[in-house]
Amino acid sequence: MPNTPRNQIPYPPGIELPAGATYLQNLALSVDDYMKDLSGTLAARPAASFAGRCYFATDKGVLYRDTGAAWVAVHNIPIVTTWPPPAALAVDGMILDYNITGPEIWRLRYRAASPSTYKWEVISAFARWAQVLTDQTTTSTTYTDLATNGPDVTVPLEGDYFVEIGCNQYHAGGGATTSANMSFAVGATAAIDDDRVMALMGAPANTDFAHYSCGRCVRKNAIPASALLRAKYRMGGGVVTGHWRNRWIRVRPIRVI
């Protein structure tokens, strides 16, 4: 009995009078065997030979597709390298990997019911991070840059983020009581005290040159795409020189548009 070339399904030859029941039974058995869910350990997987069938390796948790010549792993999480992704991917529950630059990949899930404008919620993502170790100073009582700007990071997409900052700070004020402050600007939006880390230093409670390591995390919503977040510094007053060193900033996404 001849068979189809790809899936080896039998069919009656044209020169014979078909024995209907026999041919239908053979056809049904062949289709039933072909359509079954193939699964088992990876070692038990049959040799690749029938293009289009699939095999689930239970010990690896990986689905493979037979090309007729080889088994190829099926990746059900798409990878995109430009944003926004194709509109067809913006469906409820869709998970994708956004490859931003080099090894940096964000895994995102689309949630249509989110009350936020930003429907792509972050499952996992590398934080963007920067530091400046050098001890540098200012006497300014308004937020300003030090001799080395920042540290700073740029966010790639519009959305909500956690922003973490920290430093080691002190002053040489001859007994003056004042504060050293570190905050950050978001693009053209100036640094504010609500986002700062602060150390209160000087007489009588503290001694000059006491060093304070400070850090905190704040949530900043609706940060524009490509916005630069840069650390800024100020003193509380008293014409006192403030010192900052080992200063750092880290930004992690929560959800993006």
Write a structural description.
This protein is mainly β and 257 residues long. It folds into four domains: 1-36, no CATH class; 39-73, no CATH class; 79-124, no CATH class; 128-256, Jelly Rolls. It has one helix and 17 strands. The protein has one helix spanning 20-35, and strands at 38-40, 54-57, 62-66, 71-73, 79-80, 95-101, 104-110, 120-124, 128-132, 136-138, 152-154, 159-171, 178-186, 197-201, 212-223, 228-235, 242-256. The strands form three sheets. Strands 5, 6, 7, 8, 9, 10, 12, 15 and 17 form a nine-stranded mixed β-sheet that branches. Strands 1-2-3-4 form a four-stranded mixed β-sheet, with no helix packed on it. Strand 6 and strand 7 form a beta hairpin.
> How much beta, percentage-wise?
35-45%
Helical stretch tally: 1
In terms of quaternary structure, the protein is single chain
Write the element-wise H/E pattern from the N-terminal end onward: HEEEEEEEEEEEEEEEEE
Calculate Rg over CA atoms: 31 Å
Number of strands: 17
**Outline type:** rod-shaped
Low-confidence parts: none
Helical amount: under 10%
Calculate the mean pLDDT score and round it. 87
CATH fold-type name of the largest domain: Jelly Rolls
Number of domains: 4
Q: Sketch the major β-sheet.
A: 9 strands, mixed
CATH class category name of the largest domain: Mainly Beta
CATH architecture of the largest domain: Sandwich
Give the termini separation.
59 Å
Task: Classify the secondary structure makeup into a structural class.
Answer: mainly beta
